[in-house]
Amino acid sequence: MPKTIKKVAVLTSGGDSPGMNAAIRAVVRTCAYHNVECLGVYRGYEGLIEGDFVVLDARSVKGIINKGGTMLKSARSKEFRTAEGRQEAYKKLKEKGVDGLVVIGGDGSFTGALVFNQEFNFPVMGIPGTIDNDIFGTSHTLGFDTALNTVVDAIDKIRDTASSHNRLFFIEVMGRDVGHIALNCGIAGGAEEILIPEEDLGLERLVESLNKSKKSGKTSSIVIVAEGDKIGKNIFELKDYVDENMEGYDVRVSVLGHMQRGGAPSCFDRVLASRMGVKAVEAMLDGESNYMVGLKNNKMELTPLDSAIKGKTKINLELLRVSDIMST
Amino acid sequence: MPKTIKKVAVLTSGGDSPGMNAAIRAVVRTCAYHNVECLGVYRGYEGLIEGDFVVLDARSVKGIINKGGTMLKSARSKEFRTAEGRQEAYKKLKEKGVDGLVVIGGDGSFTGALVFNQEFNFPVMGIPGTIDNDIFGTSHTLGFDTALNTVVDAIDKIRDTASSHNRLFFIEVMGRDVGHIALNCGIAGGAEEILIPEEDLGLERLVESLNKSKKSGKTSSIVIVAEGDKIGKNIFELKDYVDENMEGYDVRVSVLGHMQRGGAPSCFDRVLASRMGVKAVEAMLDGESNYMVGLKNNKMELTPLDSAIKGKTKINLELLRVSDIMST
Amino acid sequence: MPKTIKKVAVLTSGGDSPGMNAAIRAVVRTCAYHNVECLGVYRGYEGLIEGDFVVLDARSVKGIINKGGTMLKSARSKEFRTAEGRQEAYKKLKEKGVDGLVVIGGDGSFTGALVFNQEFNFPVMGIPGTIDNDIFGTSHTLGFDTALNTVVDAIDKIRDTASSHNRLFFIEVMGRDVGHIALNCGIAGGAEEILIPEEDLGLERLVESLNKSKKSGKTSSIVIVAEGDKIGKNIFELKDYVDENMEGYDVRVSVLGHMQRGGAPSCFDRVLASRMGVKAVEAMLDGESNYMVGLKNNKMELTPLDSAIKGKTKINLELLRVSDIMST
Amino acid sequence: MPKTIKKVAVLTSGGDSPGMNAAIRAVVRTCAYHNVECLGVYRGYEGLIEGDFVVLDARSVKGIINKGGTMLKSARSKEFRTAEGRQEAYKKLKEKGVDGLVVIGGDGSFTGALVFNQEFNFPVMGIPGTIDNDIFGTSHTLGFDTALNTVVDAIDKIRDTASSHNRLFFIEVMGRDVGHIALNCGIAGGAEEILIPEEDLGLERLVESLNKSKKSGKTSSIVIVAEGDKIGKNIFELKDYVDENMEGYDVRVSVLGHMQRGGAPSCFDRVLASRMGVKAVEAMLDGESNYMVGLKNNKMELTPLDSAIKGKTKINLELLRVSDIMST
Q1: Is B132 a catalytic residue?
Q2: pLDDT of amino acid B2
Q3: What CATH architecture applies to the domain D145-261?
Q4: H helix runs in C144-253, sequence order
Q5: Which residue of A has its CA nearest to B181?
Q6: Residue D1: which pLDDT band, with cuts at 50, 70 and 90?
Q7: Assembly ipTM
C-alpha cells in the first residue's frame, strides 16, 4: 500500500516552454483540491539542492495561466548530476516534509528524476514541457502548439516581404534532433521545401526543387530549415550554395531564435497543461511513481519515465507527403 | 471497378470557419498533383445550381492558406433541398464534365451531399469545416482550434479589466448544441464557472459556486456561457438573476459573437486542412464516395457520411472535472 | 519656492485602460531615479480613503509594462465626492508622509484631484488614462492606440465571415460621447459607414448609402457604430430598421464590449505611458501642481487640470472626409 | 494654371512596409472618387520601364487594407538610374496617357521621382513608406508603427524565456542609420540598454551599466541593438565581449530580421495610409508636384521632395532620457 502523500513539490527544469506556468498552476490547485500541501522549487534542480522553496496555495498561482515562461524559473544543474548533489536535494525535501516531486521539463530533466527516485525511492512524476515535441509517450508536449503558432505567424510576416520582392528565404526554426516544428510550420506556412534532421534531401535536389517551383510560376519561395537539418550545412552556407547555383532569386536568411520559446500559451497548451497537472498529482496520490503523463488519442495516459526517455518520436510520414503535394 | 475521376468540384457550405481556404487550396493542389482538373463552386449549393464555377489551378490558390473565411463564399441553399434544385445542380456538373464533388461544411451540408449522391450516384466526399467541433468521426473540425484561440484571447482581455475592477463577467461563446468551445476556453481562460448545453448546473448552484469563489479570496470572476446553455436563461437574464441574488459584484455581460468565426487559421487548422484536402481527393480518386475525412488519434480516417451526420460528439467528462479542480 | 517633494503616491481611477500599468511603472521608477519614495494606492480614491497603500520600489514594478489592466486596481468612489471622504483621504496621506499625488484616469478622476487640491493645497498631477481619447490637452490618451488595434483586429475577423456570406454587419464600439474609436477603426477596418455621436447621418441616408455601396458591387458591408451614435437608436433597432428597409442583405449585429479595455498595450501606449510618468513626477518635483501631462505635437506638455476637464476634443473632420472617399 | 490630371499611375518602390497596400487602395479610391483613372505599376521603376501596368478601379483594391507587403510588388531598379531607363519609363507613361505619378517608398525612391520630374516635367508626389521612420517631413512613415508592435511582441516573448533563465539577450532590430525602432522598442520592451547609430555608448560603459543592473536585483537583461549601432561591433562580437568581461550571465543573441517588414498594418498605419493617399492624389489634382505628403502635428502637410530627401530626422533626446530613467 502506498504511503500517503501529504506534501508535493513542483519544479520546472531545462529549456522553458509556454504552458509551464499553466502546469504549475494545475499542480498547485489539484493539491489544494485534495488538501495536499504544495511547495514550489525555484530554478529546477539547482533550487532543490539549495532548498530554494516557496509555499504555493491556490491563490499564489492566480493570473499565470496565460503567461509564457515559468514563475519558478528554470535552470540546468550540473550538481544534480552528482551523487552529492542529489543527496543534498533529498535532504532538503525531507527537511520540508515533502513526499513527492513533480518535474516539468524534457528528457534530461526526467533522467534526473528517475535517478533520484532510484537512489532514494522518492515518488516522482513527469510532465513533458518542451516546444520540440520530441518526447515519447505523448502526442503533444507542452508548448509545442504555441511554438507552432509563433513560427507560423513569423513565416506569414516574412512571406509578405518575400512575395513583394520575389525573394527566396531560408528560415531556421528550432529542432536539433527532430523536425516536428519544421514540418508542421512548413506545411502551415506554405513553404516550398522543408529541411529536417530525419531526412537528407541533398543540396542538388533542393536546387532542383526550387527551380521547379520557379518554373511553375512561383515568384518567391520559403524554405524552412530545422536547426539540425541533415544536409549538414548551416543556414548561411545554404544561402551561399543557392546564391552560387541558382539565378534570379535574391536569397535571404532569417533565424527565428528564442522568441519561439515565449509568449502566451495557446488554448490547446493551457488545456493540456491543466489536464497534465491534474493527472500528475492524482496519479501520485494514487501511489504511482516514475511515470510521465501524456496525451494519447486525446486521453491522459501514463508512460514509464524510462520509456519516455529512451523512446523516439518519429516524424509523421504522412505530413512529409502532404508537404510535397502542397508545394505543387 | 470505380470510374476514373478526371474533374473534381469543390465548394464550401454553411457557416464559414477558419481553415476553409486552406482546405480549398489542399483540394486544388492535390488535384493538380494527380493531374486532375479542379473547379471551384461559388456560394455552396446555390452556386452549384446556378453553375457559378471557376477553374482553379495550383497558382489560383496562392496566398490563401492564412486567410480566414472562404474565397469560394458560402451560403445556405433552400433550393438544394428540393429535388428540382438538385436536378439542376446535377445538370450543371455534368455539363462541365465534373466527376466528383468535395463538400467543405457541417452536418447540414453533408446531408445535402448524401441525398445528392443517393439520387444521382454522384461521388461525394466531405471535409468537416465548422468551429463548433460537433461532428462525429473527427476529433477536431476545421476552425475549432482557431476559434478556441480567438475566444481565449478575448477572455484574457476581459480578465484584465475584470480584475482591475472586481467584476463578474458573463461571457457568451458559440455553441448552440455543444459545449466544446465553452469548456475548453473556460479552462484555458481560467473561468470560475462554465455553462454548457450538456449540463444543467442550476441557478442556485451557480450563485453558490460564485459565493464560494468569493470567500476563497477571488475578487473577480468569469463565467463562460455557451449560447445553448441548459439553464435556459439568456445571458442578460443570468446577469439580472445574479444582480438580485449576490452582493458585492459589479456584473457585466459580453457576447463575443461572429468574430469567433474569422481570423487567420492556427497552425493546427492549416495542417489539418492540408491533410484533409489531400485525403478527400485521394480517397475519391481511389473510388471512394460518401465519406467524411476526419482526424482520429492523429491519423486521417474515413467515416461514412451518414454516421458523421447521425453520430453525436460527446463532451469530454475529464475536462469538466479538470475545470472544477482548476476553479478551486 | 515649492516645498520639496519626498514621497509621492500614485493611483489609478475610473475605467481601466491598457498602459496604466506602464504608467505606474514609470511613476515608480522616476521616483526611484530621483530618490523619492513612492506609495501605490489600491482601488483609486476608495483605497486613498481607506489607507490601502503599498510601498513600491523599482523592482516592484518589474514585468508589468506589457500587462493590461492596473495592478493597483481601479474603482469609482462615491465617498470621495463628499467633503468627509476627502478629509479622510488627506489624513491618510499625511499619516504616511506623502507630499504629492499622481492620478491616472479620466476627467472624472481629474475633477476629484482638482477639488482635493483646492481644499488641502495638496500637489496633484494627472495622467490621462482612458481608451476614449476624449481628454483635452493631449492628442492621445493612454490606451487609445491599443484599443484601436483591438477593435480593428475584431473587425478584420468579422469581415472574413461577412464577405464569405454577403452579410451586413453593425459593429458597436466604445465611445458614448466621442467618436474617435469609431472613426479611426471605421477607416482602418474598411467600413462602409461610421455612425458617431458628433454627427447625425439619419436613417434614410444610411440606407441610401448602403444601397449605393451595393450597387457599386460590394457584396458585404460593415457599419461601425459608436455607443452614443446620434441617430438615437440602439444597434439592434438599427438592424431592425435596415431589415425592414433594405433587401438582399442578411443583417447581423456584434457588440465588441469590454474586451476593448484589455490586452497588452501597444508599443505606442507603452512609450507614451513611460514619457507621461517621467513628466508627471518631474513636473511635481519642480514644484508644479494641478496639471495634466499630455502629448502635443509629439512633445510632452502640461495642461491645467481645469482646462483638461472643461475642454472638448473635437473629431478630426479630415478623417470624416477620408472615410467618405475610402468607401467609394 | 496646372494641366488637368486625368490619369494617375501609382507604384511602390524600395523595401516594402506594412501599410503600402492601404496606401495603394487610398490612391485608387481617391482617383475613383474624383473620376480620375488609375493605373498600378508592378515592381516599382522596373515595371515602369517595362510598361508592366494594371488598371485599378475601386473594386480592384478590395480586401487589401489589412494585408502586409504590396500587391504591386516592389523592386530596386538600376536601369531607372540611367537617363535611358527614365526615357523609356516616360515613353511608357505617355503611351498610356498617364498624367501624374504617385511613388510610395523611401528616400531612394523619392530621389528617382525628383530626377524624373526634372527631366520630363512630369508631376510626381511621394508617400513615405518605410519602417525606419527616417524621412524628413513626417513624424511617422508608413509601416513604422506596425514594425514597432511586431518588434515589441518579439521582445515580450524573448523576455519570457530570458527571465525564466536569468539570461542576457542582445536583440538586433532594423535601423542602419537611425535608431527610431531601437529606441521606441527598447523603452516599450523594458530593455536595460539600447544601442543606436546616433550615440556611442562604448563597450566599457555597456558592461558597467549591465553590472549596475545586476546589482540592483535584475536577474535577466535585454539589450536592444540597432543594425547600425555606433559601437561598431556586430551583435555576435558584442556577445563575445560581454561573455569575456562579465560573469554570471548566460548571453544569447537574437536577430529579428525580415519579419519586421511584414504583417497586417496597425490601425495607426492604415489610417495614416488612407490619409496620405487622399492627400497625395488631391494635391496632384490641385496642380501640385514634387512634394511628399507627411504627418505633422496630426495634420497632413506637404514637404518638397528635395527637403524630404536631404533632411535628417533626429532621434528624440527626451526618449533617450526616458529610457535611462526606466532602466533604473
Answers
A1: yes
A2: 57
A3: 3-Layer(aba) Sandwich (3.40)
A4: 144-165, 180-188, 203-215, 235-245
A5: A267
A6: very low
A7: 0.96
